[in-house]
Amino acid sequence: MAEDKPALPPRIALVGNPNSGKTALFNALTGSRQKVANYAGVTVERKEGLFVSPAGTKVKVIDLPGTYSLRARSPDEAVTRDVVLGRMKNEAVPDAIVFVADATNLRQNLRLALEMRQLGLPTILALNMMDAAEKQGMTVDPAELSAELGMPVVGTIAIEKGGVAGLLAQIDRTIQIAETEGWSSVQAECGWSEPSSHDLRDYHREVERILARAVQVPPRPHALTRRLDNILLHPALGLTILMAILFLMFQGVFAWAKLPMDLIDAGLSALTTLITTNMADGPLRSLLTDGVIAGVGSVVMFLPQILVLFLFIQLLEDSGYMARAAFLLDKLMGGVGLHGRAFIPLLSSFACAVPGIMAARTIENRADRIATIMIAPLMTCSARLPVYTLLIAAFVPNRPVLGGWIGLPGLVMFSLYAAGIFSGLVVAFVMKRTVLKGAREPLLMELPAYRLPRLRNVALGLYDRGRAFLTRAGTTIFALMVLVWFLASFPAPPDGATEAAIRYSVAGTIGHALEPILAPVGFNWQIALALVPGMAAREVVVGVLGTIYSLSDTGEALHSSLATILAQSWGLPTALSLLAWYIFAPQCLATLGVVRRELNSRFWPAVMFVFLSALAYGAAFATYRVSLAIFGG
Amino acid sequence: MTQDGQKLTSAALSKGAEAEIVGLDEDAVDTPLEPGELERRLIEMGLVEGARIQVLHEGFPRRDPIAIRVDDHTVALRRNEAKAVLVHLLNGAA
Description:
The complex is a heterodimer of chains A (633) and B (94). Chain A is an alpha/beta fold. Chain A is built from 27 helices and 12 strands. In chain A, a hairpin with a 6-residue loop joins strand 2 (34-38) and strand 3. Chain B has helices at 37-44, 79-82; strands at residues 18-24, 52-58, 66-70, 73-77, 85-91. The A-B interface holds A 68-69, 71, 73, 104-105, 107-108, 111, 195-197, 200-201, 204, 208, 217, 221-222, 225-226, 229-230, 233-236, 239, 323, 326-328, 330-332, 334, 340, 365, 438-447 and B 24, 30-33, 36, 38-46, 48-50, 56-62, 64-65, 67, 71-78, 80-81.
């Protein structure tokens, strides 16, 4: 099948069920020598690592997405199938397979091992989590298993130092045999074809037969998981605990990330000051301070929040709780046609819609995934907070309501969040009954045994996610920020200009053109103009308003002086209208860019832009007219 | 509740009920999946003739979805798809 290629390092692919500890094994084999890229044309990540075997051979390992079958139900699983079958573009068939099986759950895992055997590639079965299996009183006879399956079998403990020694030794043996006899002679013709339900039943019977010979399982394994599930999956108690976890996560995102965010903010301000004092005023200085630093700033400013968020997601996934959360919320989310798994993407969107949309990848069904992505921007992201706080400080009197339990500003803030969530649910409900119609994708999901997350795997996972955010979203955001700077800076104001320079720029021209369209919702030209650069990132609006009103303050000082000016020059209906606008406004090019990348479509970002704009305009119009009638102009 | 003579499916089982799977019939389910796909997915989750199941947990509201122990592992599914799994009650309430 394959020609001999001794010059290149042998390439081994890790294949296994989800929850088999495959990634932990990959980490144990390769350490931090990992390279992450993308497969051409799909958004699935390609993880490759390198290690040197005990015999001194360099070996390349690729970690393939977990799957229950080579039939491939999701884009991730299709990658696994295509790589091992050699159908993936620019990707040679692996020389050998390490099949990773959860030793505590062999009945589920071995069926895929039998399917993998059809590929005709040299395959090693790694019985992972052998320690947990032994602790539960399971006994596995590797020799018997190996004889039955016709492949070498080794036990591994991916999370323990030296726990992969046996696997490394076996990899060396497999390579040595292949290199002595030639790779082509140890590989057979690929005999895989998509299994029918009949084939799957045959595999199942074969697994039962093998298990009866080689494995002894105690009557009730996973006792701790069962005890925990009695609490964590309890309809009332479980949901309460889930809400507490979500609250902690929410709290963590805002509270723990504050200090690093303040430090980054201070650092960037210091850098801006340094450049301003040491460089002559001109387009280059402006590009550096308002374009590059502001652009990099808006990416890294959110990094602490996003890392805290990713840390929670990683812990929830590694511990096995994520599947439980999806279970608990499935029916509730199902009320509006969403999948139980949609809650993490939506929750993430409260920090920033960009990682939220990226997190929607775990939803297999495309229609479910699109519905989730479409409503992600309706969850109030943290970039909207500066605008909300500014307007609330300027227009909402701080007086107690509800019998002194809560202040009016807090109540308004809460209403803004609630309005976003509520409209998101309504939009999902409508979409799932119209454009994304169809019965719901079934929920068929294993609830894995609980495991204690390991620091090293959490750290590597966090690093992966952070890097993906910076490279995918960061580059987009940065490019957009520079573009918006350009639009807001050129052409330069004429000599003797009396107003803020931005009025004469392309952005100013666009803002003026928008003014008549926005007048019916009560926006003045200052708002119309600020909305243009605000497309790069919502919070930029505050800075731009400061520029337009010719304020020289920055940071907190800008906030308070701007609030004073706005309170004097805007009517309350205008302010309320802008708040309503901001609940919906698609004021974020980065979000639209990420939607385009993630769905590989120009259509859906266009749909998102149009429906969010329409909602924003409608809500602002209604708010403006109603409050005009109540409060007057 | 199921009467005698009618086929009992795992969708009708209450918490604690134990049963043995006697067949799969995906025609009983409204699903967006291609014909044959649901049956294969069920088998891949271990829901296959001869497997012993027990309903461990019920979701909220309307006791949906359900978490069932299938031999040695646990699978979550909705009662809608559970209708495709024909069972023979071993003990507990249907």
